[in-house]
Amino acid sequence: MLLLACCLPAPALAGTAVPAPAPSPAQADIPLYLDVELNHQPTGLLLPFVLRDGRLHANAETLARLDFALPGVPPGQLLALDEIPGVQVDYDASLQRVAINAPLSRLALEPTVIGADRREPLPASNAPGLLLNYDLYANHSGHSSNATAYGELRAFGGNAGVFSTTAVTRAFRSDADNRWRGDSVRLDSSWQWSFPGSMLSLAVGDTTTGNLGWTRAIRLGGIRIGRDFGLQPYRVTTPLPAFLGEVAVPSELELYVNGIRQYSGEVPVGPFQLISQPGINGAGNAQLVITDAFGAVRTLSFPFYASQNLLAKGLSDWSVTAGVIREDYGLRSFSYGSPPVASGSLRYGVGDAFTIEAHGEGGDGLANGGIGAVWSLGRAGIVSGSWAGSDWHDQSGNQTALAYSWNNTRFNVSLGTQRTHDDYRDLASGYGQSPARASDRALVGWNSALLGSFGASYLRLRYPDSDASRYASAYWNRNFGRNLALNFSVNQNLDDSGDRSFYLGVSVNLGERRALNTSLQRNAERDTANVDLSQSVPTAGGLSWRLRASHAEGGEATALAEAGWLGEHGRVNGGIAGSAGNWYGYAGANGGLVLMSGDVFASRSVNDAFAVVSTGDIAGVPVKLENRLIGSTNDNGLLLVTPLSAWQRNRLAIDPMDLPANTRLGQVEMFAVPSDRAGTEVRFDIQPVRAAVVVLHDAAGEPLAAGGGAVLEGNPASATFVGYDGEVYLDALGDHNVLRVSTATGTCHARFDYPVSDVPIPRIGPLTCIPEEAP
Fold first, then answer.
1. Which of 46, 80, 110, 626 gets the most CB atoms within 10 Å of its CB?
2. What confidence score (pLDDT) does residue 7 get?
3. 3-state SS, residue 726
4. Residues in contact with 417: Cβ distance below 8 Å, sequence separation at least 6, in sequence order
5. Under a CB-based contact definition with an 8 Å cutoff, are residues 666 and 685 in contact?
6. CA geometry: angle 43, 45, 48, nearest 5 deg
7. Is residue 597 within 8 Å of residue 667, measured between CB atoms?
8. What CA–CA distance (Å, rounded) separates 623 from 601?
9. Is 755 helix (H, G, I), strand (E, B) or coil?
10. Which positions fall inside the PapC-like C-terminal domain (predicted)?
């Protein structure tokens, strides 16, 4: 049937330019299977059609597979395609292909979602190991001396989670008795497990309670479980502006947000939804440029408002913490309250424009609970509000809060007020400062490319049993090109006209990481002038230094000179500072030590995830991180790579051209996906090989002809070919070898031993390839 259809002349259907001859009334139906193109876009489908009376027909099932919306058409009924309103058909019998053009109103196409990151959580790994971060500091003057050591110890491995503990040790001496005294204080110890599939983390030990914008966090010794969005870093948690449209033919899309291109790509036929990129905040304008397959260009404009304070619809963020309150933090190692307490917080995205919040805490006779919400007013900004109530030993109170914010690329406004009434208390009240009775703030700002940035703020605070404090401030700063910046600020206590401060600063970029900063400031009717000349440390490491001098009203002058060095294994710095008659010197060092993969590595401080790269026993192999050279393996073929991004793909690569000639590399690129604050192993399969170039001659002493097959006896995987001048490259040689070669005249063999040589790829021969008799 199909061959017969191929031989028929192509009839002209709706949309063709050349009419076909009228078919015979007696012509029978011809079934066809055709490659289909819909609205200038190949579908990749081979579907059944019927050629009847020179017109192409299709049943309801075929049309449904092409997303036609034809309600009421019985299954199996044939429809002439050119009778569907608005449909054009071009049937090419020679190619057995049909091109159908249909209006979008006749199609039930699902919207194509573009720009949404749908990557699944990545399987992370970590290897057993230990990490010690240290920070050392000491100073000495004519009257006293002191030394401080801070350390963080981490242990990790497999599914055991990460155990972490921090401590500080101090020693000091004064001229009063010239005796050294000291103490050591444990700061935090906790064991944490992460579950990236459900975005949950569990911590046991010292932790903090979750908090919202209208609650206060406290330190606890206990257990905390809650949502951790950092476990799925590719997931967008806030509502993003979405732009809707449709195209009748395949088209190119470009999205510009505030004049900056955010997306460029293709979109298929039908409706589409383009999700903007994360990081957009505030009011803005977007332009969508659509270029169809015929080169026609359309531009659509969309105003929008985005906020990072909202959760995407259906997404929740929560935490629950229970334990005993930590007391005397930084002073005593094991000081905890006795009554058990608990705290819980929740945020839930009811819709993209509305997020609800709830919080509850209690213990030690206190019950506290509240509810809040964040609303998007569209392009008018964001409003948030909350109410909380408490009851403590028959004394009750409540707290209310209301805030508004709006910003775009040039203006920003932020207003907020919070009040407590009667005897409102939270858990933090029993172990520190009570919440403010009144807290009001207002901030406005304006940014101009010509005039710079301006801002003004107002703050009012009133705590129990004290008068209110009111402050107003203003600032201005402007960059003049790339090398000069000015900034000015003033702060005024509205309840004390004499409490006023000014600051005027000038920053000059001198190039080569050098900068000159000068300032004049007045505080409490005291004027001070400062000059600061510095060279920052480069990211790759190197020297930094700083010179500073200041002169205050009344003749007091101070000076400082310091230098530092950032290397692969840590950072050191030292300096001298003071004024006439009162000078002191100081020095410091910080870095990290990692025990993993059977080796110890000295490094800079490791604050996040890392990896140990192994290249077998091959030393000196350069390793790249995201196409940037990060270091070379040590004598044991290992390299510590830090920092890496936890729960994300970190691309590590080795260039085969950097390897010795007598090695074989499997994968040239691998991805490291470590869990947070832990290390993973990345092993590149690099194998040393016994390689040589064997030169073969025939019985007449002439080089064997190129093209013959060669294989080592007992090793079929070594099969290769003879090259020019009888040369054969082999990289799987043993101490004693037999090489068999198939030539045009028969088979021959050569026996040889691998030579003892410092040459990576020795040249063996010429060897005579001894002919073998045919069996």
1. 80
2. 34
3. helix
4. 401, 402, 403, 438, 439, 440, 441
5. yes
6. 130
7. no
8. 16
9. coil
10. 695-755
Q: Which two tokens stand for residue 104?
A: 């979008």
Distance spanning both ends of the chain, measured CA to CA: 56
The two tokens of residue 552 are 């205050």
Pick the CATH number of 242-306 from 2.160.10.10, 3.30.950.10, 3.40.190.10, 2.60.40.3110: 2.60.40.3110
pLDDT in the model for residue 583: 87
Categorize the per-residue pLDDT at 9 as very low, low, confident or very high, splitting at 50, 70 and 90.
very low
Residue 156 CA, distance from chain mean position: 22
Given a contact cutoff of 8 angstroms between Cβ atoms, the answer to whether 470 and 455 are in contact is: no
CATH fold of 692-771, please? Immunoglobulin-like (2.60.40)
pTM of the complete model: 0.77
What's the token pair of residue 425?
């208390």
* CATH number for the segment(s) 2-108: 3.10.20.410
Q: What is the pLDDT of residues 407-434, one digit of tens each?
A: 988 899 999 999 999 999 999 988 878 8
User: DSSP letter at 248?
Assistant: S
What element of type H or E holds 715?
strand 715-721
Q: Which of 244, 306, 240 is nearest to 273 (CA)?
A: 244
- Whether the pLDDT of residue 551 is over 80: the answer is yes
Q: Is there a contact between 596 and 612 (Cβ–Cβ < 8 Å)? A: yes
Mean pLDDT, the chain, integer:
88
**HEC string for 331-349:** CCCCCECCCCEEEEEEEEE
Which of 134, 129, 194 has its CA nearest to residue 157?
Answer: 129
Distances (CA, A) of 120 to 277, 308, 647: 18, 22, 11
Q: How many angstroms separate the CA atoms of 91 and 277, rounded?
A: 42
Burial class of 417 by CB neighbour count within 10 A (0 to 12, 13 to 18, 19+): middle
- Class of domain 608-687 as given by CATH: mainly beta
Averaged pLDDT, 764-772: 92
Instruction: Please say if the pLDDT value at position 205 is more than 90.
Output: yes
- Secondary structure class of 106 (helix, strand, coil): helix
| Strands across the sheet containing 609-614 | 638-644, 609-614, 679-683
Would you kindly state where each structural domain of the chain is located, as residue ranges? 2-108, 242-306, 608-687, 692-771
For residues 150-176, give the mean pLDDT: 91
Element (H, E) at 609: strand 609-614
